Amino acid sequence: MWVIFNNGKIRSEGQRCIRDAVGSKRDHSHLLWGGRQRCREGREADYHSDLSMRTLSTPSPALSCAPGAPGGCQNGRGSSTSSSSVAGETVALVHAPPPPPRLAHPLIRLAARPQREQARVERLPDACLVRVFSFLRTDQLCRCARVCRRWYNVAWDPRLWRAIRLAGAGLHADRALRVLTRRLCQDTPNVCLLLETVAVRGCRRLTDRGLYALAQCCPELRRLEVAGCQGISNEAVVHVVSLCPNLEHLDVSGCSKVTCISLTREASIQLSPLHGKQISIRYLDMTDCFALEDEGLHTIAAHCTRLTHLYLRRCARLTDEGLRYLVIYCSSLRELSVSDCRCISDFGLREIAKLEARLRYLSIAHCGRVTDVGIRYVARYCGKLRYLNARGCEGITDHGVEYLAKHCARLKSLDIGKCPLVSDSGLECLALNCFNLKRLSLKSCESITGRGLQIVAANCFDLQMLNVQDCDVSVEALRFVKRHCRRCVIEHSNPAFC
């Protein structure tokens, strides 16, 4: 039986039977394939009509249904193939095209990529995650703990919490320290034995309450840095050093309220007679503690006798009397800075010279009362001095530099900038005695010329830094220095030299 449609196409009744036998489930994926066939006219239509009749008598393997799979064929495509034309439907049934590749939507494809990366991270063992987390800051570690339960457990691994580092003026440091110490004390109630370092820098909202909570929970604390935290007072610092007997490193620079460091009365009573009233601090930085006076320094020195590094920059109220107390109690000092302490004079340097060969680092920058007399004391008794900063000591002359060069031959760094009385004569003596000199600053030394620099460059081959800004030095002299000291970085103010 043949059926003629309005568009002139011929369709057989047998072809309709094939469509009904295959299934009623429709799929429009044949449109592209059938559309290519509808453009054929004439004999091609008759040929496909005959082909469709042959298909009825001899079914193609593409039409053979799998046993036990109703309504579906072996290749899984016959049940979903249909066409509105003879050619399109017959060819689609006999020669089914391969399915088009499944192309995901671009947004879906982009969203799937992070999932694959996340799966890779999830396959890492806990030991690897701990290693990765060890490079994160404290705030980053806290954010990782909020990702999932596994990351929460890994982020709070005790090995990651030997140090806490916080920074930022707007940070509520008291609350942060209270929450962190409370969480770290879960395994060992009321005490955290692993935390050794706490660095809270520039947090204006850190007060004594935060340090009280820290001292109560962390008796094994060894390093505390609260630089720039102006809310800290003497009481909090005393409380910390009393409850943390192993504290060795203390940085209270910029804490203008701190004027003294000692032990509480209770802690002094509990200490054994063998230790006395001693604090184990070895490194103390009290830079910009403007209220520190000689009496406070006396108390600090009496309690911190193990000090090896002490920095008192810009403590303008200190005098030579405070240095006398310091040297009496702290005889192990290796590094001392009293730069910008305007009241320090040659008498103070005479006291410092009593440290003798133990002193390796000394900064007396901008101590305007220091002259050659004080430099002679230091050079005579501190023969192992490696670093000296005397910038701005306008009373130092060539005689002081010569005496220093002859008695401190191991000197590696010297800053005598803004000493207008130092000339080429002092540089010549320095170059002929201090062959290991690596850093030399002559900034604003008006009496220095190119001749002195050439002598230095010809003898100090290991020179790595030379500062001759605001000096009357020619381009030829600078080129001579560069030619003989190839690794030297020259800081100059001569636009003709590059």
TrEMBL record:
Domain F-box: residue ranges: 118-164
Keyword check for Cytoplasm: yes
Domain of life assignment: Eukaryota
CDD domains noted in UniProt: F-box_FBXL7
Keyword Transport attributed: no
Region described as Disordered: spans on this chain: 68-88
Keywords: Cytoplasm, Cytoskeleton, Leucine-rich repeat, Repeat, Ubl conjugation pathway
Gene Ontology biological-process annotations: SCF-dependent proteasomal ubiquitin-dependent protein catabolic process
Low complexity bias spans: 79-88
UniProt cross-references to InterPro entries, sorted A to Z: F-box-like_dom_sf (IPR036047), F-box_dom (IPR001810), FBXL15_LRR (IPR057207), Leu-rich_rpt_Cys-con_subtyp (IPR006553), LRR_dom_sf (IPR032675)
Pfam family, one: F-box-like
Pathway per the UniProt entry: Protein modification; protein ubiquitination
GO CC terms, sorted: centrosome; SCF ubiquitin ligase complex
Subcellular location: Cytoplasm, Cytoskeleton, Microtubule organizing center, Centrosome
Sequence similarity: Belongs to the FBXL7 family.
Name of the protein this chain belongs to: F-box/LRR-repeat protein 7
